[in-house]
Amino acid sequence: MRKPSSELIFERSREDRFAYSLPETEVEKQNVQDILGEKFARKKKAELPEVSELDLMRHYTELSNKNHGVDTGFYPLGSCTMKYNPKVNEKVARMSGFANAHPLQDVSTVQGSLEIVYDLQEHLKEITGMDEVTLQPAAGAHGEWTALLMIKAYHEANGDFNRTKVIVPDSAHGTNPASAKVAGFDTVTVKSNKKGLVDIEDLKRVVGDDTAAIMLTNPNTLGLFEEDILEIREIVHHAGGKLYYDGANLNAIMSKVRPGDMGFDAVHLNLHKTFTGPHGGGGPGSGPVGVVADLAPYLPKPVVVKENDVYKFDHDLPQSIGRVKPFFGNFGIYLRAYTYIRTMGPDGLKAVSETAVLNANYMLRRLQDYFDTPYTQHCKHEFVISGSRQKKLGVRTLDIAKRLLDFNFHPPTIYFPINVEECMMIEPTETESKETLDAFCDTLIQIAKEAEENPEIVLDAPHTTVIGRLDETQAARKPVLKFEFLKEEKE
Predict the structure, then answer these.
(1) Residue 487 pLDDT > 70, yes or no?
(2) How far is CA 138 from CA 124, 436, 480, in A?
(3) What pTM value is reported for the model?
(4) Is residue 419 within 8 Å of 192, Cβ to Cβ?
(5) Per CATH, is 87-343 categorized as 3.30.420.10?
(6) Record's GO cellular component, any one (predicted)?
(7) Domain regions of the chain by residue span
(8) CA-to-CA dists, residue 137 to 20, 289, 327, angstroms
(9) What is the CATH number of domain 352-477?
C-alpha cells in the first residue's frame, strides 16, 4: 500500500467527503437542465475527487514541493534570466489600492496607479535610451510582434511597401522569426562568424531595399557582445531598414550602455525577467516596447500622459497600430518592476549587470577544462559550453541535464542555440552566491568525470525524482494531461 503522500488525489477520494461547508439554502432546488438547457447541461456527474479540506491542502502542497523554482534551487536557464523575485515586490503588488483597482474605474479614481504607469515609462525610456514607451504588450514575443507592426506601419506610411523582409541571426531566439512571420514579414538569416558574432560580410550580402528591419539582442544569444554593432547600424540604416533590439539580454548592460546609444530604433523589455517579475508556466509577463521618435506615432493606443499634474489615457493617435492588449497590460508586473527599479536605483542596476557578468565569466573559466568551449572570449551575463566531448563517450548533453536533477539543480538550457553542437547555455544571474555557483560547477565537473569513469550512472539518470527518464518525444507529442479512471474504478 502506498503512503498517502504518494497517492493521487483521485486515489484518496472517498464518497461523501467534502472540502467545504456551506449553509443549507432556502431557495428551491432547480434542475440544472432547466437552468442551462439541454445543450450545456452535463449528461453525467463530474468525476471529481471527494476529499476533506486537509487532504486537499496536502495535495496541493505536495504538488508545489515537487516543483522546482528560483525559491527552491538554482535555476540557470540561459537566455531566460530566472533570477530571484524580491518579496518586497510582492508586498507592493498586493497593496489593496492596487490589487483591488478595477480597469473600468473612472480615471479620476486611479490617479495613483496611472502615476506608477507613467513613471515606469519614464524610467524605461532612460534605461533603454528610447524616446517613447508603451507598456501594453503582455510578454517578450508579444512585444516583438508589436514593435514589428510599428516598423511595418512606419514603412507603409512612407509609401515603402517593398520592405517585406526581416533579417535574423542564425543564433537568434526562436521567437524572433516567429514574430516576424506573424507580423507579415519573410525572414532572412544572417550567419555568425567564427567569433560567434554577426558576420558583417554576410550581412552586407542579405541587406537590401526589401529590408524592413534586423532583429538583434546585444549581447547576443551566445552571451557575446556584438562589437561591430555601430557598423551593423550603419549598414542597415543606409539600406533604409530599422534596428530592433530583443531585450532578453538587457540584464548584462543596464546602466552600462543603452540600446538607443547603439543605434536601435525599437526595443522590447522583459519585465518578468530582467526586472524581477515572476514568470514561468505561461505567465504572468510584461513586454514593454520603447521606440525612437520617428516610430512614436505608431505606438499602440491609448498611451498614458501627464497634463497639469493629471494622468490620463490619450487616444488621439491617428497613426497608431491600435490596441494590442485589453485594458492596459499586466499592471501587477508593472508594480513589481517599478519597485525593483526604485529600490535599486541607477547604481544598483549597474551593479546588477556587473555582478551577472562576473558570475558568468567565473563559471565559464571553472568549466572550460571539462567541457568544450566554442567561444573563448569573455562573455557577458551568460555563456555556452558543449557536451560534444562527452558525446564521444556515449553521454549526451540530455543525459548530463537529467543527471543534474539528482543534485536538485534545474538544468541549463540545452541544445540552444542550435549552431553549437550539444549546447548547454548557462545564465547564473546576479542573485546567486559564490557558494551556489561553486556547487553547480562542482556538480557539472563530477558529471563530466562520471561520463568517463561510470557513464551508466549518467545514462540512467535521474535517480532521485518522482519518475525516471521520460520518453521525450512521446511526452511532447502525446502528453497525458488528465487523470483517466480505469474501467473497474468506474464500476
Answers:
(1) no
(2) 16, 32, 28
(3) 0.91
(4) yes
(5) no
(6) glycine cleavage complex
(7) 87-343, 352-477
(8) 39, 7, 11
(9) 3.90.1150.10
